[in-house]
């Protein structure tokens, strides 16, 4: 027991045990192929295979691995526009998320500062923000398609490189992801001790120097909490955006496999989305802790 605690094996063994329990539960409820032999109307023996189980169409972990092995063992392969390795799809989704997330931070952070610094700005815009904040990405995307319907950039071959669906996807990710940044930045600005601002006045710092020397450093922990939450939402939104726009990516692949009744690949996409989301959250947590301790 002492050895386990010393090397912190609990942090590894307990999650592994939880994964095994979930895997066992998955196997128990999944359907199993049962092959029986019977005699048809012509007197011939034929084998009939059908799936049975609590959820007959749900593949077992083994069936999921067998069906998905090609996408995992060749993660960057490109066999077609919608038939690529799982990490290649993931990379496409991450690029789109990064672009939308960047826009969310660029727009959301200043709005958060305005909300934190100005009571009149808060009185004017806070009700509007509270109305817009819970709107689903499924509702924002059609509006984005309308707003950016005239956008179309083509290359020398006449192929569209950036169109209305691309702009609408970025718009949807940005507007859904920016609210945690807005709210946490505003809370951070309001939490700045008045003594800090009094010292800035005594030192006769300009407004810009007060912003960069006092407000931003004091608000940074709150801002990073918002950045972390915004990144999680941006990654959640990507699935809906790719499903509705038909863009290649892990969300688009999921929707394509759903239409093809390929349930094993749907599970592969869900696991990939979950693992990538976890990794992104851990990375942001590390960055956040570095800034908080700096």
Automatic annotation (TrEMBL):
<feature type="transmembrane region" description="Helical">
    <location>
        <begin position="167"/>
        <end position="193"/>
    </location>
</feature>
<comment type="similarity">
    <text>Belongs to the binding-protein-dependent transport system permease family.</text>
</comment>
<feature type="transmembrane region" description="Helical">
    <location>
        <begin position="260"/>
        <end position="280"/>
    </location>
</feature>
<keyword id="KW-0812">Transmembrane</keyword>
<feature type="domain" description="ABC transmembrane type-1">
    <location>
        <begin position="90"/>
        <end position="284"/>
    </location>
</feature>
<keyword id="KW-1003">Cell membrane</keyword>
<feature type="transmembrane region" description="Helical">
    <location>
        <begin position="214"/>
        <end position="240"/>
    </location>
</feature>
<dbReference type="GO" id="GO:0006811">
    <property type="term" value="P:monoatomic ion transport"/>
</dbReference>
<feature type="transmembrane region" description="Helical">
    <location>
        <begin position="138"/>
        <end position="155"/>
    </location>
</feature>
<dbReference type="GO" id="GO:0005886">
    <property type="term" value="C:plasma membrane"/>
</dbReference>
<dbReference type="Pfam" id="PF00528">
    <property type="entry name" value="BPD_transp_1"/>
</dbReference>
<keyword id="KW-0406">Ion transport</keyword>
<protein>
    <submittedName>
        <fullName>Nitrate/nitrite transport system permease protein</fullName>
    </submittedName>
</protein>
<dbReference type="InterPro" id="IPR005889">
    <property type="entry name" value="NtrB"/>
</dbReference>
<feature type="transmembrane region" description="Helical">
    <location>
        <begin position="91"/>
        <end position="117"/>
    </location>
</feature>
<keyword id="KW-0472">Membrane</keyword>
<dbReference type="GO" id="GO:0015112">
    <property type="term" value="F:nitrate transmembrane transporter activity"/>
</dbReference>
<keyword id="KW-1133">Transmembrane helix</keyword>
<keyword id="KW-0813">Transport</keyword>
<dbReference type="InterPro" id="IPR035906">
    <property type="entry name" value="MetI-like_sf"/>
</dbReference>
<keyword id="KW-0997">Cell inner membrane</keyword>
<dbReference type="InterPro" id="IPR000515">
    <property type="entry name" value="MetI-like"/>
</dbReference>
<feature type="transmembrane region" description="Helical">
    <location>
        <begin position="12"/>
        <end position="29"/>
    </location>
</feature>
């Amino acid at each position: 027991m002492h050895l386990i605690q010393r090397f912190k094996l609990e942090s590894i063994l307990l999650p592994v045990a939880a994964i095994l329990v979930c895997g066992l539960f998955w196997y128990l409820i999944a359907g199993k192929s049962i092959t029986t032999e019977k005699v048809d109307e012509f007197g011939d023996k034929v084998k009939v295979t059908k799936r049975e189980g609590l959820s007959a169409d749900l593949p077992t972990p083994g069936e999921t691995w067998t069906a998905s092995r090609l996408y995992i063992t060749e993660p960057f392969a490109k066999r077609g526009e919608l038939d690529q390795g799982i990490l290649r799809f993931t990379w496409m989704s991450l690029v789109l998320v990064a672009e939308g997330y960047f826009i969310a931070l660029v727009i959301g952070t200043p709005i958060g500062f305005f909300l934190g610094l100005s009571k009149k700005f808060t009185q004017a815009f806070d009700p509007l923000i509270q109305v817009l904040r819970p709107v689903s990405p499924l509702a924002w995307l059609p509006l984005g398609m309308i707003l950016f319907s005239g956008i179309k950039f083509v290359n020398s071959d006449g192929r569209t490189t950036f169109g209305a669906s691309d702009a609408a996807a970025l718009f949807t990710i940005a507007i859904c992801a920016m609210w945690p940044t807005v709210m946490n930045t505003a809370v951070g600005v309001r939490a700045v001790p008045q003594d800090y601002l009094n010292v800035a006045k005594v030192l006769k710092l300009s407004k810009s120097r007060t912003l960069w020397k006092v407000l931003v450093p004091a608000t940074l922990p709150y801002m990073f909490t918002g950045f972390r939450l915004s990144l999680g939402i941006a990654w959640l939104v990507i699935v809906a955006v790719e499903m509705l726009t038909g863009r290649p990516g892990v969300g688009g692949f999921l929707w394509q496999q759903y239409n093809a009744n390929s349930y094993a690949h749907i599970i592969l996409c869900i696991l990939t989305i979950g693992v990538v989301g976890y990794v992104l959250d851990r990375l942001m947590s590390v960055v956040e802790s570095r800034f908080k301790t700096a």
